[in-house]
C-alpha cells in the first residue's frame, strides 16, 4: 500500500510541462528547489529555448510570481496559465492538482490569492459574493479548509469563526462590506478596517482623518519625463541580447544620450539607429513614422521613464504596465483640453503622479481650487476642497476616472458609480497606479494595422504531441549526474537582494546585511560597463573619421586604467595563473596578446572602416601566440570585415574558444548569454577575407560536455534567460590565500550577480547576528566560503561557521570548483561533494 500511494504521488504532475521565470521574487535557488519537487511528482521542466525564451507553446503551466516578463502577453494569447509558486506548494500539500485561478500573479485579478468561505451571510448576499470573487480570480469553498484565506461573516458567533480563533488559523475574518467596496472599485483595498471582531468601519466615523498611504505601485512611474539623470556605472543586464533605438523626439542632450548608450551597451545590449533593427523603441510621443512602425511591428515601445526604470531596477517590466511608462499623446486625450482639475487627499508620489497624468491627458492642473475648476480628484470625501467643490457644484471623483480615461484614450462617463465611491476608512491612494494600458485600445487609435498578436483561438498542440515534440527538439539535460549524490536544498528564499553602500551590511539574507570593513575589502576591478573608444564612436557618430582616428589611437594603448585592461590583463593572467592542478589551468593559455604601441600611419584611410558588426571575445586562441606582428595584422584585417576583438570586461556579441574551458573569460562571457563559437571562425574569416556566417561555427564539444556533465547549448539558453542574475544577491566569501588568487573567482561570481567578499576574519563580523524568530521562523539561507585545505585557510573555517550560524545562516565551505560548475551550468545547484572537506578527501 505505501508503494502504491508513493506511485500515485509520484505521478501527480505527470501531464504537466512547467516553465519557470527568474525574477527578484523567484530566485535561482527557489527555481532549482521547485524544479526538483515537480520532477519528483512526474512533471517535465522546460528549459528555455536557444534564445533564452520560454517555450510557451509547449508549456502547460508557467510559474512566475510576477507578470513582469516579456512573454507574459504571449502566454495570455495562447491561454497558457501563469501561476505563482504557491500553486506548486498547494498542489503537493493536497496531493491534487490545484486550480490555477487563485494563483495568478496578474494584479488585475484582485482576488487571485483569496480562498473564501462564508459564515452567517444571507443566501442572496452569499451568492453575489461567491460569484464576484470567482469572477475576479478567487475561489469559494463551502467548508473551512487549511487553504481558506478569508471568512466572510457578520459576527464572531458562527462555528467557522469560532474554529478560526480556537485553532489560531491564519485566515482573516472580514465583514461583507470589504467585498462590496472592492467590487465597486474593481481594486483590492486593505482588509484592516473590516476585520472582526472589532472592525474600524463600525466604530470610527468617516470624517476622522485616515493616514495617507505610500504608493507602492508608482515607483519610477510618476512622470513620463523624469527630471533625474542616471549617473555612474550601472549593471543593466536587462538589456542583454536586446537592441534599443532612442528616438530623436526624446529631446535629450548629447551627454545624457552618451550615458544611456554606455549603460545599454555596458549591459551587453546594442543601441541601433533604425526601427527595423531594434527590439525596443524609446520615444516621447505616440506619433510619427518610427513610432507607428515600431508599434505595428510588435516592438516594445516605451518612454524615457520606462527606460530609466529598467536601468535602475535591472528587471524587465512591460511599458504597458504603468500609465506613464508609455509614450504620451502629443495633444492629450480629446475633451480634456478645456478642463481645470485639482486634487485633494493624495500625498507624495501619488500627488506628483496625478499632476503629471492630468497634464498628459491634456487638462490644466491647478494647485489650489477656484470656482472655475471643473473637476476635483480626491482620495476621500473629507477636506476643505471637497466642501468647496460641493458648494460650487464641481465634479468630485476618485483617481480611477482620470486613470481609466487615460488608459482607454477617451473621457469615461462621470455617471459610473465606481468613480464616486469612497470607502469610509480608506484613503484610495493605496490603490493608485494599478491601472494598465490595453494594447488593443492603443492599436485601434494610434497604429491600426500591422502585425497582430497571436490569435487566442489558435489551437495548441495536444499534450502528447507537444511532449513528443519537446523530446525531439529540446536539449537533453540532466540536473545532476546519475552517479552523483542528491543535492542538498538551497534555501535561499528569493528575497529581494541589493548590495547596499559600503559601511553597511552586504549579505542580504531575509533583510539582513553583511557589514563591510577593511578586513573584507577586495581589489577594485574595471566595471563591465566600460566600453572601448571605438564602440562609443561608432554607436554615436557613425562613419566620422575623427572619432575613428581617436579609436585607432586608443586601441594601441597598453591599458593603465585597471588590473584587467589592455596589456596588463594579458601579462597578469600569464603571470598569476598556475597550471598545476588548477581548475583554471586553461587560463594560462595565451588568450589575447596586447596591441602594438605603434601609431597608425597618417596616410591610413580611416574613413573606409565599416561599422562594427560583431564584437568577439577570444579565449584559449593560439593563433597569435608569440607573434605580435601577426596579431596586429590579423586584428586590422578582422576590423576591416566588421569584427572587433574585445576584452572580457567589455560588451561582446560572441565568445570564441577552441573548446569549452573553465577560464575567467569563458565563464564571464557565458554569463552574458552570448553565442559561443569555435575559434576556428577567426581563422576561416581571415582565410576567406570576409565576414562569414557565425551560425556555421557554433562550438560543438562533446568531449568536454561529457566531462562536465552538461550541454553547452542548454547553458547558453539558461544564461540568456538568467541575464546575469543567476547568483543575484547570493553572498560568496573567498579566502585571501586561495590558489590562483581571489580576483578571477570574484570576476566570475560578480558576472553572475553574486555579492563577493574576501574573508580574513581579523575582527568583528560581516553578517548581522539574528535569530530564527527574528527571521520569522524561516530556515537559514546558505552562505558560501570558497576555500582549499591549506592550513592558513582551514584556520578560518570555525570563525566563518560561527559568524554564519550567529546570523541564522547555513555555512557552506566549498571548493572553488562549485562556483565554476554553477557558472558553467548556469544553474544554481549544490552537491555535498563540493564541500571542501569532501572534495579533497575524495581526490
Automatic annotation (TrEMBL):
GO terms for cellular component: Cul8-RING ubiquitin ligase complex; nucleus. One of its GO terms (biological process) is DNA double-strand break attachment to nuclear envelope. Residues 448-538, 555-609 are annotated as: Disordered. PROSITE patterns: BRCT. SUPFAM superfamilies: BRCT domain. SMART domains: BRCT. Residues 480-493, 522-533 have a biased composition (Polar residues). This is BRCT domain-containing protein. It comes from Echria macrotheca.
